[in-house]
Amino acid sequence: MALDFQAASDEYLGWLQLEANRSPNTVRAYAAELRRLAAFLAGRSHSLRMEDLVHEDLRAFQRHLALTLKSPASRARALVAVRSWLRWLAREELVKNDLSNRITLPKLEQRLPKPMQPDELTDLLAALPSETPLDKRDKALVNFLISTGCRISEALALDRTDVPRQGNRLIVTGKGAKQRAVYLTADAKAAVDDYLLARTDTCMALFVNYDRSAPRGGERRLTAAGAQYVVRRLRARFGAWSFKSPHVARHTAATTLLEVTGGDVRLVQEVLGHANLNTLQGYTKIVDARKQEAYKHYQEYLDDKKREVR
Q: The whole model's pTM is what?
């Protein structure tokens, strides 16, 4: 029996979710890219039976993406999804030929992560108030992200019972349902404890929404959009202009850890939950640049001292 496009997509997406343990966001993104390919084929009056799909169709799809998606990163995401799908179909012997080997990805310009500057970070953490429950929540969230380097999705998935009463170690669940240990600094632990002590609700979520539209007595877990709003508000209030998103806190934690550990990339990999060491190359470049700048200032200091002696 011939396998049609929809059945092939459903099989793969089910595998991604149930066996590969990919995140719901990843599954949705891959599903969207496969729908994009299906719409393209349908627009060419192409058969949606997998046995009729050939290399020329994929090359035409790549040309279509080049015309419709300006961003190389967007094109790469679409092609990665399609290539992974085709590779899986061939591995599972659901199709006769592996068509994935003809898909080439656009060359992407490497963009360095943009962490907060040390002085700006210090000023922000010192300025965060803790007068109201909302203040305490925001202070706890920022300190938690800076301390642990967690993705915002990982932080928001935590329950209040995940924070230990004693000690500073807790377990978070990252991509692929992989768990890892992260640690709270003394300041972060104090901020989180102070926030939890002020809570009067019964919601299990660690970080809750204080918006008036939030349901009373129901699920009030802070969303990613809500966390982004928190960051924008704090950024404008305290002039922390490089704090553009919750993910900046992760970049900041990574570069800070690299600096204080003398460049221990393996340790940072474990703390952040990165599967690939290559992902950390951008952070090491930032740390190297900071070291070079520090050495430059040190040399200028020595030169000034020499002139004073003369």
A: 0.67
